[in-house]
Amino acid sequence: MLAIIGGTGLTEMTGLEVIRRHSVETPLGAASTGVLQGTLEGRGILFLARHGHPHKLPPHRINYRANLWALKQAGATRIVGINAVGSIDPTLQPGALVIPNQLIDYTTGRESTYFDGRFRPLKHIDFSWPYDNSLRNTLVAAGRQAGETIENGGIYGCTQGPRLETAAEIARMARDGCGLVGMTGMPEAVLARELMLPYACLALVVNPAAGVTEAEITMSEIEAALDEGIERIKRVIGALLKV
Length: 243
Ligand code: HPA
Known about the structure:
A hairpin with a 2-residue loop joins strand 3 (25-26) and strand 4. Helix 2 (133-145) crosses helix 5 (219-242). Strands 1, 2, 5, 6, 7, 8, 9, 10, 11, 12 and 13 form an 11-stranded mixed beta sheet that branches. The protein is α/β, with parallel strands linked by helices. The chain is built from 5 helices and 13 strands. The chain has one domain: Rossmann fold (3-Layer(aba) Sandwich). It has helices at residues 64-73, 133-145, 167-176, 188-194, 219-242, and strands spanning 2-6, 17-21, 25-26, 29-30, 36-40, 43-49, 78-87, 97-99, 102-105, 150-152, 155-158, 180-182, 199-208. It is globular, with a radius of gyration of 17 Å. The chain starts with a strand and ends with a helix. The longest helix has 24 residues, at 219-242. It binds hypoxanthine (HPA). Hypoxanthine (HPA) is lined by residues 84-86, 159, 164-165, 181-183, 206-207, 209.
């Protein structure tokens, strides 16, 4: 069953007919919220609000291990994470939808593995290509079917937050090749891989990253871009359910 992890601006799926609300408790502690199981446009779907509902958890406080575990327990077989991002690549304007194919993890101190020698014995998994290519391609096709322009590929840099970055940090990330910056893409992607769940990211650009333009980054511009973009994301998910 397809699972959606809703990011900032997507704490509810309108149109979702809820059949069951799974428990928030997992062997790894509490998930951000109980996984909602239901139907959307007649198809089975799972939904989890990454920051809780209402939005309360900052990126570094999210129990990613519990979230991914909860989704697997609830029957997820593939996962799409929705992420609001800043654009480092100046050709990506607010409103752009991007499906990255690589990531760089700049976070620190997050519980980022099940194979920690305590919960599970140590194991090193392959993560050369962090996103599932077949799910990425299906998502690209679904997006285009929904009439959206989808940027296929790009490097997502995950920062610790909750503060935004300095202009020098973003310049360094640009030198590293990052086109997008967000705070929640990791360890979500690696935990999905550890659970052998195909995972892809659908990123919505909500602001140019620090120093990319002269202007200060404001919450009001981010919120306006989210308001405008979330409906389009919902259409892409609707199309994904049909392919
Ligand atoms: N930086 C990090 N995370 C973000 C940003 C940003 O500029 N915009 C939205 N999420």
